[in-house]
Amino acid sequence: MTLRTFALTAPALALAAALLAGCAVQETPRPFGQAYTEQFQQQIVGEPYAAPTPVEGLDGQQARRAVEALRNPEQDKSPSFTQVLESLVDRK
Fold first, then answer.
1. What's the whole-number average pLDDT of the chain?
2. Spatial separation of the C-alpha atoms in residues 38 and 68, rounded to whole Å
3. What CA dihedral angle connects 50, 52, 54 and 57, to 10 degrees?
4. 7, 54, 69, 78 - which has most CB atoms within 10 Å?
5. Residues near 75 by Cβ (< 8 Å), separated by ≥ 6?
């Protein structure tokens, strides 16, 4: 082996050995996905967290009026946004 060949192969072999040695040391990371699993479990609401009284919401008549107002906007008696702005400008 000539000096030139040795000068080229020695650094290449040293670099390869260093790279392979880096792959040989492998740390075990913290449990992957543990944070996701904990957050998911914290979002589950079970029986101990249920409300003691039932939830009050829309009754059938209120729901029907709301749906009718959405389907027939011209029947809505409330002022439009433009009308509200005009009344505010007229006051000044």
1. 76
2. 44
3. -80
4. 69
5. 68, 69
